[in-house]
Amino acid sequence: MESDTGTMQPAQAAQAARTQVRIRQLLDAAARLMTTSGSQSVSMQAVADEANVSVGLIYRYFSSKQQLVNAVIVGVLDDMAVHVPAATAQVDDPIRRLASALEAFIRVVDDQRAAVLLTYRESHTLDAEGLQAIKDAEIRTAQPLVTALREANEQGMIRPMNVSVFGYDLLMMAHTWALKHWYFKNRTTLDDYIADQIAIALSAALRPEHRQNYTDLLSDLT
C-alpha cells in the first residue's frame, strides 16, 4: 500500500529493494553461464546454483528461460536508459555532453559485459515481437548521442555528417569494450579506453576552429 503522499512505506521500499537485488543477482548469474555455454545448454537449476538461490525463487520472477534471457538483454538497455541521461543532464555544451554520454555508455557496458555479450549471442533466439522491442529500445538508448551531435551540428561545431549514423557508431564503440574485451584488457585500462575513444571521436567530428575549446578531451591525441 502506498502512503497518502504517493510514496512507498518503509517496509515496502525495503522489500522492493531486496527484490531488485535478487533479480539482478539472477540476471548476472544467467548472463555469466549463458555467455559461456549458450542459453540452450543452461538449465534454470544451473542458474539457481550459480546465483546461490533456490530454483523456485527464479520461477517467482521468470516463468521461462526465454523470459529470463529477455530480461538480461532488457536489463542492459534499462541501465543505459537510466545512467546515460543522468550523466548528461547538467551538461549544456553539446560536445561535452557527447563525451559524457559516451563515457556513461562504456561504463554501463563494462559493468554488464557478460550481458552485452549475451545480447549479441542470443538475440536470434527471441521471437519477432521480442526482437523488435529490443531493436527499438537500443535505438532509443542511442538518442543522447544523436541529440548532442545534432545540437553540435546546428551550432556549426562539427563537420557535416549523418548524425544518426555517427551516433550509432559511437554506441558500437561502447559495445566493443565488451565484444573485444579479451584484446583490450591486456592493453589498456577502462579509463584510458574511455579517454582514447572520446579523443578519437571528437578528433573526427570537430571542426578545426573549435578544437582549442576541447583540448582536455583531445589530449590523448595531441
From TrEMBL:
This is AcrR family transcriptional regulator. Residues 43-62 bind DNA. It comes from the Bacteria. InterPro entries: DNA-bd_HTH_TetR-type_CS, Homeodomain-like_sf, HTH-type_TetR-like_transc_reg, HTH_TetR, KstR2_TetR_C, Tet_transcr_reg_TetR-rel_C_sf. Residues 20-80 form the HTH tetR-type domain. Signal peptide: none annotated. Coiled coil: none annotated.
